[in-house]
Amino acid sequence: MKRILSHFSERGRTMLSRMRRILAGVAAALLALPAANAAAETEKELQPYAEAAAGAAARYDALKRKGGEAKCGPDLIGTLRERAGKNIVYPLLYSPKKRMQGSVESWNDIPAVGQLSFLNTSHAALPPGLEAYFKAAVSDDTLYVLAVAKDSHVNFGFRPAYNSDCFELFLDPFFTRDTRSDDSSMQLFITAADPAGKTFRSEGKIPAEARPVPVEGGWGVEIAIPLDNAYFRLKPFDGLAFGFNLSYNNNDDGKARNQKITWSGLDRNDSSWNNPSVFGVMEVVRTDAQPVEPVRPGPAIEENRRRRSAGETFEDLGALARSRPSPAVVRGFMSGRLDNGRAFHDMANDWGANAVRLQLHGIGPKPTWTPENYPVFLDRLEEAVKQAKAAGIKVIPVAFEVPCELGGREMWEVPGVEEGFKRYWRGIAERLKPYAGTIWGYDLYNEPLGRSQLPYAPVEWRQMAVNIMKAIREVDKDVWIIYETGPGGGWRGFEDLKPLPDSRVIYSLHFYEPGAFTHQGIAATQLQDPGLLARAQESTGVEYPAFIGGIRFDEASLERSLRPVIEFQEKYKVPIYVGEFSVIAWAPVDSAVRYLRDVTGIFNRHGWSWTYHAFREYPGWSLEHEDGVVRKDAALKPVRESARGKVMKEAFRAPVVNK
């Protein structure tokens, strides 16, 4: 039998009338995408996917409420057809057969095929002949997946993994269908461990075996995921449902990812990495009776929460709140372009800025931390600080480089990283101590990220930051330290955070939410192919406020998303700093203006310092270039005052709120 991917059955449609209100709300949100967004699908196109996903959830909820034992009827093929929903519900057949035989033919007993049909809208058009599909089966202890790519240009060995030809697998084993990922959701990257593609690996927080499968005109891989692991314990019974999606990252130019295609009909904007509500569904089909048992959490979920909240802090946290540390509120730009000091004067005189987040790697020579380059770097840095002082600008030095050799590994895997940072910052603190009145704070490291630990901050970062801070304190007892909680530029790290054991710490985040709006079209404008400009225009037109990726974004929702930061500030009375935020120049003009007015209003109401990204760097982020126009290679025209620039000047002049 060939593919069983039918439309939702009449039985399933009847079930929709009995769906819980929350599921109906999720479906409605997924359908309400803005008509002006050329990259989004219409309500009519999304409707069958949302209905089928909600129907699977309703069936599963009813089964859990009923309890007892479950098995499907004798008509196995009919059940497979009935439960399948093209690109949204995959009927996962129970099979005791041990897979991982290294061949496509060994999967001939599995009839259902999931085709990766949807192109991530921020990437260039698919090359001719590129396609990918999967099959899946489940045994008592393992979820097996066969993933196949028909790809005439295979490129392995690039880092991060998604820049190689790579499958990206997503799981929501507890079927939360939440709009924010957490420890209960998983992301795995499956690719070759070597450029020749002889061995394969899986990267992610749960162990998975990956074995290559020969495929003519492409490549394939079998994946085995244990159902009893540190994060979840799952026993398959008929009707058990969980969230699932599979994407394929395609590297054709031998440099980085060019395209990304995905299976779930609900994920059109590459949202699965942080939004389980756009996953598709796997629904188990099993003929023998098994008890209905909910999926149970593994020990790592609670252990990770404990680790995230652990580490050195104050013995009396109330004392920190009573002391109310309060550096001067600053508003400025991020920049790495010095222009012999002119940039600092223009920030101050033309914009009313009083601070610059200075990218240290931009000062050079690169890498700045090597023995031969570091003395030259310190000389250049000191000169830049002198120029900023002359312009009346406070300086926020920020490290973008990891000051030691990584050898292709994540920084958390390299023993010398902490010592490298300590040497790096101690030297900077010694050189810049005479400029205490000009240094607003030292931003220890830009966007700390451990991909295998997403969606949370790397647990190693907090104590490493404490130790780097102690090294700076050996030289300077008073300078403010800026701690980005992570992960990356996000603020999930605030959720379980206890303050660092120093009263002169500023807690920092970056804000680009929602990325489908703030970064619309940016990837396509930088790709060199004949369809570049047309593809970029297809992925723009995303408006704000609106439903984006199935979620309503407006000022109220943005402020709600920042509740972990606001609550941390209110609880401990500590200063908050937004080191980066922006919106791409070619976003719809009215939407860009509204967005910037909303986010700066939020920041200013809460008394947060902020620096806009960026000043005289990439034209797409520039406030001194034209609004609302997509041009090849972001070759935008300079303007005297953009609409975005006008609203930002208002934000710079807004009264300071002291919290």
Structure characterization notes:
By secondary structure, this protein is an alpha/beta fold. The protein folds into two domains: 10-288, Immunoglobulin-like; 306-653, Alpha-Beta Barrel (TIM Barrel), CATH 3.20.20. The protein contains 18 helices and 27 strands. The strands form five sheets. Strands 2, 3, 4, 5, 6, 7, 8, 9, 10, 11, 13, 14 and 15 form a 13-stranded mixed beta sheet that branches. It has an eight-stranded parallel beta sheet with strand order 20-19-18-27-26-23-22-21. A two-stranded antiparallel ribbon has the order 1-16. The longest helix has 24 residues, at 43-66. The radius of gyration is 26 Å and the shape is globular. 49% of the residues are buried.
